[in-house]
Amino acid sequence: MDTLTHALSGAVIGMATARSGSAELPRRALWGALFAAFPDSDVVMVLFTDYFTYLNEHRGYTHSIIMLPLWAALLGWTGALPWRAGWRARWRDMALLAAAALAAHILGDLITSYGTKVFKPVYDAPLAFPITFIIDPFFTFILLAGTIAALWKRKALYAGVSGGVLVAYLVLQVFAQQWATDIARQHAQSINAPNAPVIAFPQPLSPFNWKLVIVENENYHRAYVNLLEDEPRAPAGRNDNPFKHIRSAYQPADALQWKTTSRWPREPAHRQVALEAWSQDAFEGFREFALLPYVTTMRGDSNSVCTWFTDLRFTLQGVPPPFEYAMCRGGDGSWSLEMNSKAQNTDE
């Protein structure tokens, strides 16, 4: 989830736990926002590590509930310092606010598709319960409205109400995810793959937009559904903007356009090259990061070829994949990592 939304969640928590009408309400809003934004400070890793290490370690130590007491204590101590004459908070109060704000941040990331290492360093695998797209304007607006109302009226009640509305919104998304998953399971039954893993990923623009994925051996069957849509949407034109391309992908449940993507090229010679590219030591970071990897394209000839990979979790129809990398074999047989694709591959 984006850092602004995290900060708003902390501001709401700070105001909801303040005394209405008191001078501490805006101060707690500010400190709550700073505390809730703190976990994303791990972005500084990009200055000291390689890119794939950052991808895998982001949402690690600063997002761990195991480490939360330590961070809350340190942040609480920072917030209790006499930053301004005439006001000084107790360390205990600030530490409790920091703990609540950090917990809200961790939960906000846990409900997206990226994955969060909530038990690091005890358990290093990332966990996810994907019910919310990583940038959700409805989620953000609910928090923003509560923040503005509480600051304007100087009443903690408005912050509490926005928190309650947000909980109701998340409950709605839980039911939407289950609904979308059931649709995917029905299709899995129809293609004689009743035991295949099924995943529903939240999508942009609407809480009712979902990407459905059925993992069958080395194939991914995918479709885009809008749970409330009744009429099929017309496809976007070549010159339409990206938002129209994205929106047009989501079809009614009874008019889904299922597409099958193979993880590996079907031609034996190409498959052998792709498997060799995938196994290279320089690609270990992406192998660890990708949940649903597949080959998007291969470019070159028998002497020099680049095999491009991405992760199906993050693809959107009509938009180049955000995480696309290649292993390239040169004419001398050596391999090198390519980070930026020059081809406009899209999930179509």
Q: Concise description?
A:
The protein is of the alpha+beta class and 348 residues long. The chain is built from 10 helices and 8 strands.
Characterize the structure shown.
The chain is α+β, with helices and mostly antiparallel strands and 348 residues long. The protein has ten helices and eight strands. Strand 1 and strand 2 (209-216) form a beta hairpin. The longest helix has 35 residues, at 156-190. It has a four-stranded antiparallel beta sheet, with helices on one face. It folds into three domains: 3-154, no CATH class; 173-262, Nuclear Transport Factor 2, Chain: A; 268-338, no CATH class.
What attributes characterize this protein structure?
348 residues; alpha+beta; Nuclear Transport Factor 2, Chain: A; 3 domains; four-stranded antiparallel β-sheet; 41% helix; globular
What is the string of SSEs from the N terminus onward?
HHHHHHHEEEHEHHEEEE
The overall average pLDDT, rounded, is 91
- Could you list the spans in which at least 5 consecutive residues all have pLDDT below 50? none
Structural class from helices and strands? Answer: alpha+beta
Question: How many individual β-strands?
Answer: 8
Topology:
Elements: H1 3-16, H2 24-37, H3 51-57, H4 68-80, H5 91-110, H6 137-153, H7 156-190, E1 198-202, E2 209-216, E3 219-226, H8 242-248, E4 259-262, H9 268-278, H10 284-289, E5 293-300, E6 305-311, E7 324-329, E8 335-338
